[in-house]
Design brief:
Blueprint lengths: L1 H18 L48 E7 L10 H16 L3 E7 L2 H13 L6 E5 L3 H6 L7 H5 L16 E2 L2 E2 L2 E2 L4 E2 L2 E5 H6 L9 H13 L14 H15 L1 H9 L8 H14 L13 H9 L5 E4 L1 H11 L3 H5 E4 L13 E5 L2 E5 L7 H15 L1 H11 L17 H11 L3 E3 L8 H15 L5 H16 L2
Parallel strand pairs: 1-2, 1-3, 11-13
Antiparallel strand pairs: 3-12, 4-5, 6-12, 7-11, 8-9, 8-10
Helix pairs in contact: 1-14, 2-14, 2-15, 8-10, 10-18, 11-12, 17-18
Length: 479
């Protein structure tokens, strides 16, 4: 790995000398001209894939590397990594990279997820981004247009793992034909229904209901037991968007509407089908099936309601599923927990059986790092490593999860039924749709997220939410 950095340093230095300041290469990996509609699943057998090349093509002149200091910011805290395969793998591979590169002083600023989102936006606004950080897709166009983040198009094309990348995953991190990050962590859902199959069988359902009307009908039974029907937490304001609306909305709008919003080609948040999705969301959350504090507690608190038996189901992301799995190990509820998609709303005909899946973050590099060839070489190698085969094989073999780099022949036989069931639910048995806030600009979602919370409380109409979001969207497009 140290040799690869030296090789990269030579390549970067020559590139700076020959082409310094250009940065206009528009070559992209194949498949980046369309929106990602699915996260490719590894085939279900033994993991054997290796990269076609493990070293940069340049031969290092020496076996030493220049001392470098890199500042890195991310949200894979030790707490986050407990039961979270992506964060565990990320932390593990970073530690291995540090050990292999003693010439690099890596200063990590590791924050909780919600705090990270706030802090990274603040740093971007002050033009003080760290050298290496996690970029959300929704910030790609804005931050790239401001010159804050490095164009990584050629870096990605030159990666020793390029032939193994799932190219569709680059779409959220692409602007004007250029790619600004290597998609990171694991490809997972934001919207899974986790439910106690035994409790729902007692309520008269062999599987989780396929319609919201059936869920409403079951709520009296669970209320009689002193239970909430479904637990949900929107205290961070993003959960209703990421973990509910982007899947429910797809049932009303379909994929073409979402792609048009992303590309700015005519779709509007005030379109009747999206307003219908907002209306359905309001009706569902005002129906009484959720915990009364759904708008004040986070998903971390809400999932505890399911774990302690206070709720018969929970809606959250794959990270929540991993945490619940770790927490319930050895209990009866572990054995009776199953997975389902959101029930179909009345009047929704654009899609069925969907759940939103993808990689919402990418490893990005501060554009100013390009001024220091040694630092840039180290940053590139770190980005390659934490998104390459070391990471992919770790999460595949330990968690049956996938990332940017494909691992062929994942062996599921060593995993318990829970893991096999969730793998098949995520990658085989359901239809993928997009995660809304992996795209467009944070200013748009900032408006929607706040107003959505107000709407869910019954204090704002769906039409007003749609108009306010459209106003923010038009302001973003006009920039």
């Amino acid at each position: 790995m140290k040799k690869r950095i030296v090789g990269l340093l030579m390549v970067v230095t020559m590139t700076v000398l020959l082409f310094g300041g250009c940065g206009n290469n528009t070559t992209t990996p194949s498949g980046n001209d369309t929106a990602a509609t699915a996260t490719s699943a590894p085939a279900a057998t033994e993991a054997t894939a290796t990269p076609a090349a493990t070293e940069a093509t340049a031969t290092p002149a020496t076996d030493t590397a220049e001392a470098v200091t890199l500042d890195m910011m991310h949200f894979s805290t030790s707490e986050e990594s407990q039961g979270n395969g992506g964060s565990d793998g990320f932390r593990t591979v970073i530690a291995e990279w540090q050990a292999a590169n003693p010439n690099v002083t890596l200063n990590q600023n590791v924050l909780a997820n919600d705090e990270y989102k706030t802090q990274i936006a603040t740093l971007a606004g002050a033009n003080e981004l760290p050298d290496v950080f996690l970029l959300q897709g929704m910030n790609t166009k804005s931050w790239s247009s401001q010159g804050l983040i490095l164009d990584m198009t050629q870096i990605i094309a030159d990666s020793p793992y390029a032939s193994l990348y799932n190219d569709a995953l680059f779409y959220p991190f692409t602007a004007d034909g250029k790619i600004y990050g290597l998609p990171a962590l694991t490809g997972g859902t934001c919207t899974a229904v986790v439910y106690d199959s035994a409790a729902w069988a007692d309520a008269g359902y062999d599987t989780f209901p396929e319609t919201w009307e059936e869920v409403f009908a079951a709520s009296d039974y669970f209320a009689g037991l002193g239970m909430d029907t479904i637990a949900f937490g929107n205290g961070g304001q993003w959960q209703a968007n990421s973990c509910f609306l982007s899947t429910l909305g797809d049932r009303f709008t379909g994929a073409d509407w979402t792609k048009s919003i992303i590309e700015g080609t005519g779709a509007k948040f005030t379109d009747p089908e999206f307003v219908a999705a907002l209306q359905a969301t309001q009706d569902i959350f005002l129906s009484g099936i959720f915990n009364a504090d759904y708008n004040t507690v986070t998903n971390e608190t809400a999932r505890e309601y399911y774990i302690d038996g206070s709720a018969a189901a929970f809606i959250g992301g794959n990270w929540d599923v991993s945490y619940i799995q770790a927490s319930l190990a050895g209990t009866d509820l572990y054995n009776t927990t199953k997975f389902a998609v959101l029930p179909q709303p009345e009047g929704a005909t654009a899609s069925y059986n969907t759940q939103n899946i993808g990689l919402g973050y990418a490893v990005a590099i501060n554009a100013e790092v390009a001024n220091d060839p040694a630092k840039l070489a180290a940053a590139i190698d770190l980005a390659y490593t934490v998104t390459g085969t070391d990471f992919a094989e770790y999460v595949a073999s330990n968690y049956a999860l996938g990332g940017l780099t494909t691992v062929a022949n994942v062996d599921l036989s060593g995993f318990d039924q829970w893991t096999q069931d969730f793998y098949n639910w995520s990658y085989v048995d359901t239809t993928a749709c997009e995660i809304y806030d992996s795209y467009v600009d944070g200013s748009v979602w900032g408006t929607l997220n706040v107003d959505l919370q107000t709407m869910m409380n019954g204090d704002m109409t769906p039409e007003d939410v749609a108009q306010a979001t459209q106003d923010s969207y038009e302001a973003y497009l006009a920039q």
